[in-house]
Design brief:
The protein is of the alpha/beta class. The protein contains 10 helices and 12 strands. It has helices at residues 63-78, 96-105, 119-128, 153-167, 182-198, 215-227, 241-253, 268-271, 284-296, 326-340, and strands at 49-52, 85-88, 110-114, 134-137, 146-151, 172-177, 203-208, 232-236, 259-264, 276-282, 303-307, 314-316. The two termini are 20 Å apart.
Length: 349
């Protein structure tokens, strides 16, 4: 049974990180050790929370990085020892079980797995270690000791489609996906639904690269799309999407009026307002923060939680007004309210 998650508080998580990749064993971060008292001076239980990235890595400018930022903010807010919040980076799916198992066997209090591709692997580790508390982003894991957090990406992507349809000059827009899995299909289908709701005549060019960690592949795919006449590309491809931005930047420098719609984080903060039209944000950082805080507060429940527009789990970046006109944002809000009220049901398949 899917449980209903109460509305996550809207907290601005803006920690900027420059991180070195981890090896095969969690090591203390080099910043030193903080006291164990809380931010307000009260005692905070000393817990250890670990996170395993998928192949995109912790510096993917996307959901892995957002998850890590959520944990870093939790550590700072509660003044936990910095070495008690850590991550292991996966270079292939063969690393998932060993990395997850390492945190569990070392008795870390909560172990996060980030990404749909880790679902079956985390299920295996959870079933073999029923006393271990685990959590995962973007996958449903049916186990009492696991809390699964999923997002209604199709709802937020619908709003991105509204923006794209209103602002395209060529009547062609693109979607670049990573691996063709259910979570990425929700991005694609929701985006196209938003485009067609505004202007059925706009063509949506769709390509899956098959990877979340191949910027060069993202760049070549974007080059083909822009070459076909698309002037706006929405990507949902993790680190592969870095290449989409790089291609847009190259073309912008030559005077071409092309744009990218970012994903998961406000990617204008990384790639700039000159090429980022808007971003469809998934508040992974807040979800990771909330579930981890629940563990510390003794409220960890397990189960499956879904976050959409109504829960403020997805939406457009706050910086959208820099490039998106007020009348378009007004239309976006009108569609948003209709979705929240159930007047529009956004497809996800």
């Amino acid at each position: 049974m899917k449980k209903v998650l109460s509305v996550l508080s809207v907290a601005a998580l803006s920690l900027s990180l420059v991180l070195a990749g981890c090896g095969n064993k969690p090591e203390a971060q080099p910043q030193g050790q903080a006291s164990q008292g809380g931010a307000a001076g009260g005692a905070v239980p000393t817990v250890k929370i670990g996170m395993v990235t998928d192949v995109g890595g912790v510096n993917d400018n996307s959901f892995n990085q957002s998850a890590w930022e959520g944990l870093q903010k939790l550590q700072a807010d509660l003044n936990l020892p910095k070495e008690n919040v850590n991550y292991l980076q996966s270079t292939s799916d063969a690393d998932y079980v060993p990395n997850l198992t390492q945190f569990v066997k070392d008795k870390w209090d909560l172990t996060w797995g980030i990404g749909f591709l880790m679902g079956d692997h985390l299920k295996k580790v959870a079933d073999e270690n029923k006393d271990a508390k685990m959590a995962i982003i973007d996958a449903e894991v049916d186990a009492p000791n696991v809390e699964s957090v999923l997002f209604k990406e199709h709802e937020g992507s619908f709003l991105a489609g509204v923006v794209a349809a209103k602002m395209t000059k060529t009547k062609k827009v693109g979607f670049v996906g990573g691996v063709e899995i259910p979570v990425i299909k929700r991005f694609e289908v929701g985006f196209e639904a938003g485009v067609k709701a505004v202007d059925p005549s706009v063509q949506v060019i769709k390509v899956y690269t098959g990877a979340f960690d191949k910027p060069d592949l993202g760049k070549s795919t974007a080059s083909q799309m822009y070459g076909q006449g698309a002037d706006i590309i929405f990507h949902a491809s993790g680190g592969t999407g870095d290449g989409v931005f790089n291609e847009a930047k190259d073309r912008k420098a030559k005077g071409e009026n092309v744009w990218v719609i970012g994903v998961d984080k406000d990617q204008s903060l990384t790639f700039g307002d000159d090429i980022t039209l808007t971003s469809m944000v998934k508040r992974v950082d807040q979800a990771v923060y909330r579930v981890s805080k629940d563990l510390i507060d003794g409220k960890f429940q397990g189960g499956i939680k879904w976050l959409g527009l109504a829960e403020d789990g997805v939406g457009l970046a706050d910086t959208s007004s820099k490039n998106v006109p007020a009348d378009v944002l007004k239309l976006v809000d009108e569609y948003k309210q209709k979705i929240i009220k159930g007047e529009i049901t956004v497809p996800e398949k």
